[in-house]
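Repro:
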Amino acid sequence: MGRKVVRFYPIDRIRSIIQAAIAGREPFRGWKRPPRRERNTGSMFNKIKTALGLDPIQKKLDDLIGKVPAINALEEAFERLSDEELSAKTAEFRSRLADGETLDELLPEAFATIRETSKRVLGMRPYDVQLIGGMALHDKSIAEMRTGEGKTLSATLPVYLNALAGKGVHLITVNDYLARRDARWMAPVYNFLNLSVGVLQMAARTENGKKAFLVDLTVSSVKEDQDRLRMVPRREAYLADITYGTNAEFGFDYLRDNMTMNYDDRVQRGHAFALIDEVDNVLIDEARTPLIISGPASDDVEMYHRMAAIIRELTPDEYEVSEKDHQVYINDAGLDHVEALLGMTLRDPARPEEITLRQEAIMGYIDQALKAEFLYHRNKEYLVQGGKVVIVDSFTGRLMPGRRWSNGLHQAIEAKEGVKVEPENVTYATITLQNYYRMYDKICGMTGTALTEKEEFYKIYGLDVIPVPTNLEFSARQKNSELIERTAKDETGFKYTFYALRSDPETPVYFKRKDYEDVIYQSEEAKFRAITVEILRNYILGRPQLIGTASVEHSEYLASRLKPEPLRRLIQLNMLRRVWMIRNKIEYVESPIKQFDPFRKAIETIGANDIRPFARELGVSLNPDDPENKAFLLAEFELTESEYPRFLATVESGIRPQVLNARKHDEEGMIIAQAGAFGAVTIATNMAGRGVDIKLGGELDEATLRDVNRVLVHSGVDPYNLTNDGRYEELSRLDEADFGVYEESVARFRTYIENMHKVRELGGLHVIGSERHESRRIDNQLRGRAARQGDPGSSRFFLSLQDEIVRLFGGAQVENLLNRVNLLDESVPMEHGMFSRLIEQSQERVEGSNFDVRKHTLEYDDVLNSQRKRIYDQRDQAFLKKDLSEDIYDILETDLDARLEKYGEEENWQLAAYFDSVQPPFEIDGNFLPAFTTQLLINELNREIAFDVPEADAPASPEREEARREAILEELLTLSRKAFEAENKIGLDQAEALIANARAGFDAQSDERRANFELFAEALADRLKSRAEGERDGEIQTPLRGQDLLAEAGSFARINFRLSSEDQRLLTDGDETVLDKLRGQIESTLFTVFTARTHQAFLKRLGDDYVPPAETPENWEDFGDAAMNAVSEGFLKRADRLFGEQDQVRADLNAALRSIPGEALRYGLNDRQWNALLRAAGQGKRIAFDAKTHRKTSVAYTRLNFLYYSGTLLDGKSRQEIRDLVWDHYLTTLERLRAVFGEIDWKRLRNHSIPLDQLRAETQAQLKTLLGADVYGGIAALPPAEIDEDCVEKIKDHSGGRIQNEICRMVILRAITDQWVHYLTEIESLRVRISMEAYAQRNPLVVYKTRAAELFSELLKNIRRAVVERIFITAPTLGMLTASERVSLNELRKDQERALPAEEDLTKAEADEAEARPEPGGKPEGGDAEEKLSTAALKKKKKKMKR
């Protein structure tokens, strides 16, 4: 670096100490050589393999190198082609592919085509190493190409070749900026060759992901993100030959395609070939990141705010933070505190498995609030921008807008930060990037660092890593090359490598990067001080520096230390230390300096007044400008006289770095491009700015280089084989008149080269690592920013024992070493290869662990992958199959047979209730379709009443109508009485069962709480015994308080005990009589609780008709008798009200019958009229108080439930008879629905007078086939009203069938989508729980596969069940109507009237009966329950109905 940057404790002095400490022995008592590291053995083995030609990767690389001459041989011939001939090569290649040639056979010519096109269009010629990289990519490998080696240009070679197949090429970048930049940059090449280029961008730029862009070089915009880009429907971007975008955009589009309800809405056209830039970032760092499309699951967000406030009240001794496990554990004291703050109990310590759903939910809120408070830190794991919490990728440091942590964690962090808490989300679709890219037929990638992860790339993706040599190395290895590789030592003794000319072997022309050993400090503060001094020294020289950090927080903290005040304070402290050392004649600081102990805290907390007394004691001024301090400062910071003025200016103004992190995500390319400029200081998270080269002297835009190349070509110079220095020299030989219109470009190029030489002389870019990442690859990426393309450069990492990687994985060993030697001051670093090896060993362990996690995760993912493919294939089948009627029949029959398997195991009313849930009453466009039980009742009534035959010529008279009305009334009354008797009988049986269940619960709770109380009694006896022994020994005992003991007993038994003051005093003596009183209180309290709950259940079912017994019985036998008597009395009261003196049913039926027309009374009522009469019998009205209006109102309630009687109508029927009855009802209902849909469709056509010949060609072709060409030709131009009835009926039947088929399609797709969403939640929950199986000595993966298979089988059943539930109640959407081909949906919506309910809304008929319908297999909820449910509420209720 030009000078010794930091001073270290002499290595010779501590070498034996280090070795002894590593060996685990005391210092200076002998040492043991550390065992040879496995990594070195492997390295030696690899060298032997390579030397013997046994390394398959090297052999593959050699094969690729051997193909380069064939491509180069074509260059001269291709140079002679005209632009038209070169452009026509694409059509030629595609024709040859169609004739049977392969892409491999076309490769040499295709690569030569791209090379020549690039030269003509971009002024850039791909080097041989770029050809090698391109071939590696085409060969389904990863091309490891170092920074600055032209990966973007190299990618054009395989992209063009594979685009010839016409299946689409996806080029994946790490951010939107690079997708835009690379697409626009390379589009001229592709456009020249007649290929189109699409660009995907994030939702904010593309109308929520509905749009994308095509590169259009004719479009101009001042906005960078719109320049040369034309917005198009997203599908068009995928139809382009080449599509650029980020991994998230491609993955989310795949998920959205498999959620859409319309096949034509899909945008992707397959997954043929993907080339991934920065492939290690995508396939390793983000491999385990799931792409999730989610939506709100609930709106209850207040609890997150409440929990955030409660967690802040906890003290450190009430929880434990495990950084290594990334968990926070709350202890019993903490739970007690939380319970007190909440005012509720969250667990029973004696029976932790007994927890209510509410308690479980609260504990979930607590867990996430703890993680949010103690594990997730602002500006590290996330940022707060615009009132939103935005995740920061832990590997890349990039923002991930739109992504949210799951399971309520994101909401907990939002509550912690005080921003708006968005509702918790449920996953609709998900896939990990790892699994998404494994779907491609062919993938490849390029990056600068992949070798450390080559095992993972191969085992998971089948990708070899091909280390492509740099252009410099490749050139030096060629025979007769003018370059040779040399080594030397700099002034610090560091050995480095450089390249020189054979003619001048001692003069470096190109360099390899100098990677200095890591230095380690005892504290993080000492490390940051050392980094600040390092930055200061290089800044004064003007040398550009890139400082890598692990988080946004550290970036901003480090930048804050470069401000004038903290920088000045650090300089003052270092100056004082130098003065103290000189005064005390100390050359090296060995032991800590006690005088500096007060100044070891954070520099920003130290003020001038804190150090002024010590300065006075030393007799020096704190002012760096003081001439007397100059000698001290020159010595401390190793400055020359010429550098001193810049030093003082820096002390005055501070250092203003460019901070590049997730906050400046969109600007990172522009910022990082200038990091190599003279005097630049850039602080960045370790992976920020990937994809953008750092060039010494600053950025040289490609347009300038292109212009310079054109000037040289025009002057007869071939610029493509020249370096930038060579171009500079050639330009210097030209007259300025030769520059022409490119004069400004030449001037910019010269300035760039001059600045570059200035920075080169200073040693190039210096990279400072502020801490090690857990992955060596990330550290290598940071180092790799320096020494680009043979430039000089260096790197050094600064560590501390407080760094996360050291503390968690290597700190104990290092700290043990330093504790043994115990002689170093905090400010003195230790530099030795041992420390680097320790860290690397820790990194290797973490990398291995992460690989194992990802590999293990993949084994779990494979289960979900196969299931996802099967589900998505079913969706495709639903989309593409023309007639789905047979599928619906199969689903209905399967469901019916599955239910009838339980025949005999449940009562018939439960079976009937299930069939009602499958096909509830449905009303549409004036047509009423009754439920199964309603149809049974209607059939029963029609059998009992003799209506007139329509053909009979019977005279009508008022007397005859009245007689018929009376007959119907009596039959309905008889039916109502039978229904009441059936309900009464079942109600009494259920009342007895309810009392029995209550008693069983009482017995269980009583036994448990008495047992817990006995534990208290035993503990009290032991305590009293111990106190007695202590008193005998003369110990002073604190008196026991009866109130405290009573509370303790209550916590054991979970009972609120009460005792008099005297009994409390006796309790402190352990009086057995008092203990018996408490035992009795357990029994009495529980008896009161359980009997009260039973009364509440009866009140809910019978309403005001139930009057609890006046006297509370003292035992369960008496309570059972009294309660059953009260229930019986309740039923008698209801019977009297309905059929006795009040005779409410008769009165309401009489009123309802008056609205029935006489013709219906004569010839028979239709289903709608019968349903209205049954409703009149079953529903009543009563007076209620409206809490909102504070007025009396009447509300409907269910007084009779016909379901139980309907069940008796199935008595005596065999299973097959019931099946036939139900199946006939299903088929009849489907046929009636088809007719209704056809009528609706024709009515809309007729209302809008749309002739058939104005419909879509596809519809006309179907009608022509249906009616015959001649018939159709005669009516096609007629208004619908003039078409004859026979044709109309055929058209109605056809339209009804088509609409019904579309409804079936929609129902199946929606069922698959909805159930898949629920399944994803279940499978994720299973994945979380499955780890516990290891404690039971079972293989979690095997158990997971078994249970996942069971869950998937259940998923398929649930899909069928969801189809069954919806198929009878789904109305057609407006877009399904034939009229929608000519009439806008808005017009149809206005025309809708009441005939067409909203999609999947429950109908009014269902709303009327839903309340009266109990849950199948459950207990009836009839009685006086008020019918005030809205349609939405009814939908929710219906979804909860169990099979």
